[in-house]
TrEMBL record:
The chain crosses the membrane at residues 12-34, 54-74, 95-115, 127-144, 151-167, 187-207. It comes from Paenibacillus baimaensis. InterPro entries: DUF1405. The keyword Transmembrane helix applies. Keywords: Membrane, Transmembrane, Transmembrane helix. This is DUF1405 domain-containing protein.
Length: 218
């Protein structure tokens, strides 16, 4: 089969693919929260439990995408002739999944290899995290034709994402960085905020492309 087959709507919406991605993202989310466990405990004990939702960035992004896949699985067991049911909550989950999965997928890879560039050694976990986070960014884009979100959802998701940046770099609950990057926090913060805007713009562009594709099919 050609690469076009593997990125087709039919293949991506197949139950095999949906169940595969559901378990990959669900188990990855659990692993991610375990990865952040020490920082979650530290934040709760030394800062405030109120800050906990803003600590685990990547696992929360994969949790959002697990929600997207859950909706698509539900659709797959319904009458395929019916259009996916739109709701404000589903739209918000989709927008959050796209924006945060792309953002933190790219962010994590950038931080890992920025640390390596400044002298950190490379181990198997770095390669595993690189591949898994690139997968996060890729899957969020690949499923663009199956989303239902509109502008209002993008706005709310953008506000959440930027507020998370504020909490990370003003309050200080950003993900723990490689030792070599600890003196580069202002640069990391600026890069993170810029990546947030890029991710929001991407969500808007993909929405426009999707709507054009929908009109051509009518």
């Amino acid at each position: 089969m050609s690469i076009r087959t593997y990125v087709s709507k039919a293949f991506l919406s197949s139950r095999f693919m949906l169940w595969t991605l559901f378990w990959v993202n669900f188990l990855g989310t659990i692993y991610g929260y375990q990865w952040y466990w020490k920082q979650l405990v530290y934040t709760a004990q030394t800062m405030s439990p109120v800050y906990l939702p803003f600590v685990p960035d990547s696992p929360t992004a994969s949790l959002f995408f697990t929600g997207v896949i859950t909706y698509l699985l539900i659709d797959s067991y319904k009458n395929r002739s019916q259009s996916p049911k739109r709701s404000w909550f589903r739209s918000l989950i989709e927008a959050l999944a796209l924006i945060t999965s792309f953002k933190y997928g790219i962010w994590a890879v950038s931080m890992i290899w920025a640390g390596v560039y400044q002298g950190d050694s490379v181990n198997w976990q770095d390669w595993m995290l690189t591949l898994s986070h690139l997968g996060m960014a890729a899957e969020a884009i690949l499923y663009m034709r199956l989303y239902t979100y509109r502008v209002n959802a993008i706005i709310v998701a953008a506000l959440w994402t930027l507020w998370n940046d504020y909490m990370d770099y003003t309050v200080g609950v950003f993900p723990w960085l490689p030792a070599s990057l600890e003196d580069d926090i202002p640069i990391v913060a600026a890069f993170t905020v810029q990546l947030s805007f890029v991710s929001v713009i991407l969500a808007w562009v993909l929405m426009k492309i999707r709507r054009l594709m929908e009109k051509r099919q009518v």
